[in-house]
Amino acid sequence: MHIASAGIKPALIALCLMMLCGSTGAADDCSVADVLVSSWVRMARNNSPGLPTTKATRRELEFKTNDQVALKGYSYSPPSQESETAAKHFVLLLQGSASSAAQLAETASRLALAAKREVFVYEYRGYAAESVVHPTAPAIQSDIDAIIDSLSEGGRRGVVIGMSMGGILAIQSLKRSLKRSERADLRALMDSAPAQVPTIPFLLRCPQSMNPLDAATADVIQRLGVVYSHGDVWAKDPAAEELMEKVKAGGGRVWMIDGGHVDLSASGLALRLPIYVDFVQQRSP
Length: 285
Description:
8-stranded mixed beta sheet, 10 helices, 8 strands
């Protein structure tokens, strides 16, 4: 998750974003050649950390998408005596484009215990070892929206925490949720996401609406949090500063911390976990 060399971050993360865009997408979707898809999915599949060290209850899950693709997932819950609060809330973690759901096991487990919430994380379509499905940004976004709808049944309140590319998906899910219902009880926290999706001639082109800076409208900002790190190249983008000022002015929340891009090492998680817990336990507007 953490890339040591700051100099190669823009290219690497841009390629991650490219990989999730279909080459024949419509004008409203991202568009890019498919050449890098297999390499980034392979990177995610090769990341197989061990089970979390904390004592949250872990369950293996499967979610069937609208087109009947099976997505492998996990949930992490606090002990049973604390499950009453967890039953009324959920947290969905969205990983970066070259990462697997398994990589978030420690983060999800610690967050479940600290925030007393049930925390979910799913593999993106096409990422599971046995999958032969081709991942595209529109399909993954649709999958995430369907997962949120399922988790929200019964009036359950939700928070989506998206890391890097997952942050772009998170704010889009929040915007879509509010469009479906102004009474939607969902909030989103973006960690290390680019404020503007980079455009690379002949390789990557996304509509302006995909940019978090543009997606952060007044109704979204009230339910939005943004985290950047001093060592993250995306934080140095003038658009990121503009996004942070826009979110603060609109009543959202902003954090600037030490460290690098989505650093989930022990030291990085020590900085991020209190922010995640604070945002998760905050009441919706």
